[in-house]
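Methods, example record. To illustrate the input and output format used throughout this study, we show the complete record for protein-tyrosine-phosphatase. The sequence lines were provided to the predictor; the line carrying structure tokens was produced by it.
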Amino acid sequence: MCREDASLFCLLGFLQFLSTVLAYGCPTPGYYGENCSLPCPQNCQEGRCNIVNGTCLGCVSGYTGPTCDSECTDNRYGFECNSTCGKCLNGEQCNHVNGSCPNRCDAGVFGDKCDKECPVGLFGYNCRENCSLNCGVPQRCDRVTGECRGGCQPGWRDLQCKISCKWGSYGYNCNETCQAVCAKNRTCDVIAGTCEQIDTPPNDPDDNTAVIAGVVAAVVLAILVVVFIIVFKRTRTTKPKHEMQRSEKRIQEREENAHLHNGSENTGFTNIYENMKTDDKPVLNSDNNKTSIDTPIEKKYDVRDDDTDDEGIDNPYGDMYLNEETICDIPISDIESAINERREDEDDGFKREYAMLPYGEQHPCEVGKRQENLVKNRFKTTFPYDHSRVILTEPDTPSGDYINANYISGLEEEREYIASQGPKQNTLNDFWTMIWQENVTQIVMLTNLKEGVKVKCIQYWPGNMKARHHGNIVIKNEEEKQYAFYVIRKLSVSHKQQNKPRTVMQYHYTTWPDHGTPDPLSLVVFHSHVMRTRTSRNKSPILVHCSAGIGRTGTYIALDALYKAGKASGKINVAEYVKIMRTNRMNMVQTYEQYMTIFLALNEKFKAFMETQSLPDFSTKMETLAGDHPANQTGIRKEFQKLMEIRPVYTSAHFKNSSQHLDNKRGNNVLPLDKYMLYLTSSVGKRGNVINAIHVSSYQKDRAFIVTHYPTPEDAVDFLRLLNDHESDTIVCMNPLHAIESSKTWLPEIASSRDVSPFVVQHESESDTEVKVTTVTIIHGERTPHSVVVVEPKGQLKSTGTPPDTSFLRSMVSYTRNLSTENPITIVSKDGASLCGVFCAVFNSIQQIEMDDNIDVFTTVRQLQTRRPEFCSTQEEYSLVYTTLRDYIETTSETVYSNQ
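The corresponding predicted structure is encoded as:
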């Protein structure tokens, strides 16, 4: 400032400077005060403040006050502290910027911000506890306390209905008193109040009358029985011999049918809980990842994780009986036509064929129904047949010789497989004892540990690079590889009394839809991985399990067995093999949809063989590309022709929704399949929720990519919604954007912004090395800004030279592979197909090289075409994939050698 004795000239000069600053602002943004020499407070939004007094024009997220120096308090966070914190533990203040809780959530909520209520059926901290099945409305309870809604079911009490009735009480909330003294001083049934045997109290005045009446009734009944037997024998002796034989045969058939379908064992099983012995020793129950003490009464009534393995409709024809028909073998060349025939009239052929298969208990399973073994069964109606069950033979096994598992015969060898239920907490020792006893080296797991709110299987292996033991068996997890649809774990298994460890490979398919069936080609790729890592010398059974060990398990075993049979004989018979499986274990292949999946998977399997190549073999194959003569590319041309023959052919029914909403839009020459189409979740006035975009998998991750086309100017807002709604923070363009005129409607120039109402796209930074990278921020009102990286090549990816220059494409793939994001990466081209398929195929193939040290371009492209048949649909693009991978391998090898 001018001093008091300053000249008038000095004062006028300052006033002129001040008026200039007020009119135009400080020359350098982010400063204020005399000569614009003071920096604005650091928490001012966009670093800007009042040029005179330095007060902020707005605060960054999490701060408030004139100079934005105060963090949000009072359970508020975010821009202008407008957002309310979730329920953090003990009411703690959440993070003032992003709303996350510093420790953990309070009971009843979950999520990073602790703002999501527990799903129905779960409660407690992090929603890890399951509401009791004994609630008045099963699995419905208070999300915080677990208190049951509507009280308890008969036989249970307490707020969470986890404690059985006290001795001498029964009924709802245990409010009823047992009316009689039960034999051996036992309490009455906690549900019905009855006793197996009742000793009436001695002071009962009707005691003698009841006894006399009982004796008289017994004597009369005995006399009637004797008379009937005498009359029956006399009548039989008067019949002709052949008539007697027919009569005896009918009686025998009735007895056999009763044994097979209703069964004497079923008669006993109906009341088996009432006859179950109790003891005073409490039972430790650690199912569902929680530990509690079950009383003997709880052991009686709560012996399984769930009542049924609900995979779908067992018999699509209900209780209607269909006469068995002879089903002929199908040549592998006719599988597709057989499928088409059976799919007519809403899969009626599959439904009828499946309904003719034998269902239910066909053989005795007495051991699985014994009282001491009921607690080891996961489901109440799935037992192993006695004649084919796996018997544990290790001496001094505390839990006995029982496990819910059966040997399953292949088409050439007996006991080729073991079909097992998923282990429970109380069967972990038995499960690993079986693996060691049967010398199992491959485990195929077809369920997740939890699907929805249902626990499907307990985790029986240790975490990566960790160890655990079950009984005498020690298990170490030496390696874990994550693929798009499955996980492979290498386990070292040893016995405490033996020194030599064994290697057991676990193949865990993680994307089988709950109550559905998997993509047939994905299941075939998984099966091929299991097959190629099994040595021909290995004769031990393959252990296959899901949850119950019948539905998904039967589907996989049938695929494996029938593929081997079809390869050897040239024909298959799915129905006959399912019958074979069902003689070993009940109800293998649980629904007609699973039965149909066997056909679909076998069709994919036999269409084209999957053959991975080592890198040296691939390089040898690629030497044929060295010349420019077409004859040099005969092998790849034949591959491409085969690919075009077998790629999926979809009908208008598969595009019903997309064609209805997208057909009339410019740029939509390639439509998304309804099955894989993405939807927009945000709401913008006069805009729908459909966009031409699909999810595509990488080799390692399902839903790794979003593939779409460049938006037209009128659809730019939907493109931005897509990025926001699906949290995609990377756009990979298949063309330099200066050649895409429409990109100017949403991509701002340097140091500027674009208004795409209701969004503002703000330019942040730009770099230009091997690829051009632009960073922008998408701002939508007061919501959290979304940062996005836009990657574009510095030249055209399709080269016209000979040999073609793949450097631009390799640079794009290399940059994308080195990204640290876990969010989906959006791939964009002019039509959402050309070059997108090439990019994904190269990306996925390089991941395969790094993970497995082998490559299979044909199968990689084939999988991509299930999502979008237009991917790599020209010889030029298919050859470009090969050429790019060849160049990648050569340059990588050169780099490795130069660093040695």
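Annotations derived from this record:
The chain has 21 helices and 41 strands.
Residues 69 and 92 are 21 Å apart (CA to CA).
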